[in-house]
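Blinded run. Sample ID left blank on purpose so nobody reads anything into the name before looking at the predicted structure. Input follows.
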Amino acid sequence: QVQLVESGGGLVQPGGSLRLSCAASGSIFSINAMGWYRQAPGRERELVALITRSRETHYADSVKGRFTISRDNAKKTVYLQMSSLKAEDTAVYYCYARPVGAAASQWHWGQGTQVTVSS
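Blinded prediction complete.
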């Protein structure tokens, strides 16, 4: 069983930076992608970024050029470096891990971490 623990959220001023971490425990042998979704009040859940086992990355158009997803295989941890933050980035960010061939209902999820961008 895979468990995900997120950290790094908080309050930051517009233009500032934060780095989110998502540490996995348990067997990740079958995991072929990890990343983050976010959900803001009054908004649908949005895929922010993902990284695959082959190191392919994808980003939402709204964060391209500002966010960078990376991984540390030894620590079984995925990071989301967020720079040039905007008020519209305010949301709860949820880490996920996708097993090979898994339906969405079989994905693993972190508890969520709040990111608030405000002056």
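Unblinding after everyone has recorded impressions. The mean pLDDT is 95.
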